[in-house]
Amino acid sequence: MNERFLRNAFIMIVVLGGMFLYGLIRPFDGDDQVSIGDRTVTSRRAKVIDRGKEDTRNVVVQPSPKFLIEYAFGDGTEGFNILRIRADGTGEYNYWDQESESARQKRLTFKLSRAELEEICGKLNQSGFMALANEYHGDVTGGTQVAITVVTGHVEKEVYCDNHFPVAVVAVADYLEKEVIQPNRNRS
Fold first, then answer.
1. In the chain, which ranges are continuous DSSP H helix?
2. Same domain, yes or no, for 87 and 105?
3. How confident is the model at residue 24 (pLDDT cuts 50, 70, 90)?
């Protein structure tokens, strides 16, 4: 029994040691694949995080008369697709059409209901978007950038992500892609 106990203890120490080392090494590799809409992008470990001066952690996003959300996705070589939704539910999506021989910019306009605006606000609140830092930089050349600006009441919050995408940004961007952009592109 003593020999069996020692063998099992040794195996347990090796397994736990391996898990501990994996936990130490894993955060330093820094690259994760994340899905935003129908795209998969690489999120690298942030080297620079700018917290900004204004504390917006306790701000609740609501579709107020000054409500605005802007969402930009893209990069410096292929351009940016930009979604803008105003307090009255009017929306526009300016995007690069990559399906034709020469890329050209197109515009889509649409109208969201009050319930759809409230769902967007709910997603922003649920994700903890207003508690994010203002900037995240993955410290690589090229790659993908995402910027989301939210105006609610008299508070404006902008989050800019350069090759590092916090979970809250991925959740909001994925929601906007799947629940706002795609359905309205399909209707046009």
1. 2-29, 114-127, 167-175, 182-187
2. yes
3. very low
